[in-house]
Amino acid sequence: MLKNALGRFRLMGILEGSSLLILLFIAMPMKYFMDIPEAVRLVGMIHGILFTIYCVMILYATFAVKWPLRFSLWAFVAAFIP
């Protein structure tokens, strides 16, 4: 999976998507039902870092694979749809 640019991009997408699921379905309930706001603070920060890296990976994949600009724009737009 990590042998080429698309494999690294795919792995980053999986990590970033997983962090969103952990944030929504584990950390948020811990904050509101168990009164542990630190969970959202920690997981939210990790998710933000992974999202930033994912956006950089879109640029990396664009140049490494020579994607058309429209693929990159759609990948960036799709990153904001949960």
Order of helices and strands: HHH
Distance between the termini: 24 Å
- Low-pLDDT stretches are none
The biggest beta sheet reads: none
Average pLDDT level: 93
What does the radius of gyration come to?
15 Å
What shape does the CA trace take? elongated
Structural class per helix/strand content? mainly alpha
Strands, total number = 0
Helix content: over 70%
Q: How many DSSP H or I helices?
A: 3
What fraction strand?
Answer: under 5%
What would you say this structure looks like, in words?
- By secondary structure, this protein is an all-alpha fold.
- It has three helices and no strands.
- α1 packs antiparallel against α2 and α2 runs antiparallel to α3.
- The longest helix is centred in the N-terminal third of the chain and has 29 residues.
- The chain is elongated and about 50 Å long.
Name some characteristics of this structure.
mainly alpha; 82 residues
Task: Put the structure in a nutshell.
The chain has three helices and no strands. The protein is mainly alpha-helical and about 80 residues long.
Explain the layout of strands and helices.
Elements lengths: L4 H29 L4 H28 L3 H10 L4
